[in-house]
Design a protein that fits this description.
Elements lengths: L1 E6 L11 H8 L4 E6 L12 E2 L9 E2 L1 H13 L8 E11 L2 H8 L3 E5 L8 H8 L4 E5 L9 H12 L10 H4 L33 H19 L1 H5 L8 H10 L17
Parallel strand pairs: 1-2, 1-6, 5-6, 5-7
Antiparallel strand pairs: 3-4
Bound molecules: 5-bromanyl-1,3-benzothiazol-2-amine (JA8).
């Protein structure tokens, strides 16, 4: 997969030299380039911003450097190749794990990181005439610029590219992949600062462990993310799942537990 990131703060993307993504780049699984938007200016101050038409606070990114950057991007690919341009912005469509999976199979992604009050809207129109464009938000909060959002998306996408994570199994059992949060995990020592491990995990009863983990996932999701419980398909829930949720009073289930004490808090 090829990735190109455009920013006025290329050093902000330096975490991409490290860890999983750094290794994937060294191994040639990911071809990632970071570009300084100011390299596409021509004035002596390398100006990228100007005042907004119509007035108001702050500055807006000028279209000319972005236009040149996009032309450079298009010209840098194989004949006929077109990148999918992602523009981080608090007004974009929500970035999700499902979107990460869709983007992970694309051969070429580019990120346009804005700063100030945003990028002149004509840049988005111009880009849309050349390539698929998606304005994407990583969450309902405002960042100082698109760089950290691009880091979030590149990390979520790159780890789904085949070969980037050695053990494919570690991708299967993950939060947000099947609509429930993950179960709590423990490692050695078995007693730490007076705190033990749930007995079932030391029992060797694999079926009981699987059931305990499923209960914990349901309880944790109900407590922390009731919105995810709302989106569960009842057809995917077994009798015990329905008992756990009914006990928590969080899902419309006709099947109530015969013995409510069977569901522990
Ligand atoms: C921002 Br300025 C700017 C650019 C991109 C993003 S994505 C997000 N949540 N906030 C702010």
């Amino acid at each position: 997969m090829r990735l190109d990131i455009f920013s006025i703060f290329p050093e902000y993307l330096s975490p991409l030299d490290l860890s999983l993504i750094g290794k994937a780049r060294q191994e040639g699984l990911i071809d990632l380039s970071v570009h300084d938007l100011r390299d596409f200016t021509h004035d002596r101050h390398r100006t990228v911003d100007d005042t907004p038409y119509g007035g108001g606070a702050g500055m807006v990114m000028r279209p000319e450097p972005w236009g040149e950057a996009l032309a450079h991007l298009m010209a840098s690919g194989e004949p006929g190749a077109v990148p999918h341009l992602l523009i981080p912005g608090p007004g974009g469509v929500r970035f999700t794990q499902a979107m990460a999976h869709e983007l992970a199979v694309e051969p070429w992604l580019a990120f346009a990181c804005g700063r100030y009050e945003g990028i002149d809207e004509r840049v988005i129109e111009e880009a849309e005439a050349m390539m698929p464009v998606t304005v994407v938000s990583v969450g309902d909060y405002v960042l100082g610029g698109g760089e950290v959002a691009a880091l979030v998306m590149v990390e979520a996408i790159a780890r789904l590219v085949p070969g980037v994570i050695g053990n494919a199994d570690s991708l299967v059992e993950e939060s947000h992949e099947d609509g429930l949060l993950e179960y709590p995990v423990y490692t050695k020592p078995p007693l730490w600062r007076g705190r033990g491990i749930p007995d079932v995990l030391l029992s060797g009863h694999h079926a009981q462990i699987a059931r305990w983990r499923r209960d914990e996932r349901l309880k944790r999701t109900a407590l922390r993310r009731p919105d995810m419980i709302e989106r569960l398909d009842l057809a995917d829930l077994d009798t015990r799942d329905r008992e756990v949720l009914a006990h928590l009073g969080l899902k419309d289930v006709d099947q109530f537990p015969a013995d409510p004490s069977a569901v522990a808090d």
